[in-house]
Amino acid sequence: MMKKMVLLSAMLLMLVATASAQFYPDGRPIHPAKRGAYYGRPNTPRHHSYDSYCGFRVGLGLATVSSESHYLDGNKVKAGLNAGFVAGMQLVPGTPLFVESGLFYTEKGGKSENGADKFTYNLNYLEVPLLLKYKIYTAGDLTVEPFLGGYVACGVGGKIKDFNYRTAYDSFGDKYDDNFRRFDGGVKVGCGIGFDIFYVGASYDIGLANIGKDSFQDTHTGCFNLDFGVTF
Question: CA separation (Å) from 96 to 27, 92, 134, 136?
Fold first, then answer.
């Protein structure tokens, strides 16, 4: 728990530093709720400038591991933490199409019960998404933000718990054959809603990399994410 709190504190400090360093062509920040008006006004400096934003996200992930291997198949849902920061930039001035990336700590994995065998797989990653996001500005302060892209992730910790033998061992590493490869990657699709500076989003991660060590038995992650946060 202490490690998680230290990691979250570090992310928050990075977020504040990024937010304070944002560049605004007219010399002052534009409130997120007011940015939509700038896209349709050709005589404003914003029309010929690139909008940017950053934000902090925290939420819940509901994860599974799908595997052809009996020892790695965790197709029952395991809940975990998602936390990190994002930064985005407008691709073309005058259009609400953005590219977004960031850095997240995310807890994935799954649970398995097969007869007397019972396992829990904890797979903790540092994850970098890369998304295309389209912001639909509605009346008032509301934005609808569908997005599509991908992610890459590196395993930084976690345990496989074998309840039958009452043992636990590292999820990643070279000491065991019945554990996971460290690197993952896949597709992320979802939609967010912004109101004032507040944000809520839902997404699904489709793991495409085979994270099992046996190349003949495919093993993939999947995770539904529900995130909350603020955008500056």
Answer: 21, 8, 6, 7
Cβ atoms of residues 110 and 65 within 8 Å:
yes
Distance CA 63, CA 16 (A): 30
Q: Contact, 202 vs 223, CB < 8 A?
A: no
In this prediction, residue 56 carries a pLDDT of 98
**Residue type present at position 113:** E
- Grouping H, G, I as helix, E, B as strand and the rest as coil, residue 232 is coil
3-state class of 135 per DSSP? coil
Task: State the Cα angle at 103 between 101 and 105, rounded to 5°.
Answer: 140
Interval 149-172: pLDDT, tens: 999 999 999 999 999 888 999 999
The answer to whether residue 37 scores a pLDDT higher than 90 is: no
In whole angstroms, give the CA distance from residue 50 to residue 212.
Answer: 42
Rounded CA-CA distance 169/161 in Å is 7
φ, ψ at 163 (rounded to 5°): -75, -25
10 Å Cβ neighbour count for 72? 23
Q: Report the predicted TM-score, pTM, of the whole model to 2 decimal places.
A: 0.79
> Given this model, what pLDDT does residue 71 score?
83
* CA-only gyration radius of the chain, Å: 20
Cα–Cα distance, 144 to 131 (Å, whole number): 15
Q: Tell whether the torsion through CA atoms of 75, 201, 207 and 147 is positive or negative.
A: positive
Q: How far apart are CA 148 and CA 205, in angstroms?
A: 10
